[in-house]
Amino acid sequence: MTRVGRPRLRRPFSTVRASPLWGPGPGGDYLVRQLALVSEESGSVGVALAAEPDDGQFATATAMLNELGQWFVEHRHNFSTVTCHTA
Fold this sequence. Notes:
It is a single chain. This protein has a three-stranded antiparallel β-sheet. It is built from one helix and three strands. The protein is 21% helix and 34% strand. The chain is α+β, with helices and mostly antiparallel strands. The protein has one helix at residues 58-75; strands spanning 15-24, 30-40, 43-51. A hairpin with a 5-residue loop joins strand 1 and strand 2.
């Protein structure tokens, strides 16, 4: 069952800094986006997800993002990570 609500990435990550964005797109339908910096021991990876459902509903867009987020969690080891250093 897909959870509907505020989109967010959850464990198994050490740190997730995320910014959910949503609102009507140019045609009036909802466009929901999730931008995140996901950190693990091996480094960090930037994630950008977006969903604009055919029915234009916020709940549907959120459910779509939750599915995309779950896909990322299951495939996270396929992505390269980087380590950022501050000057």
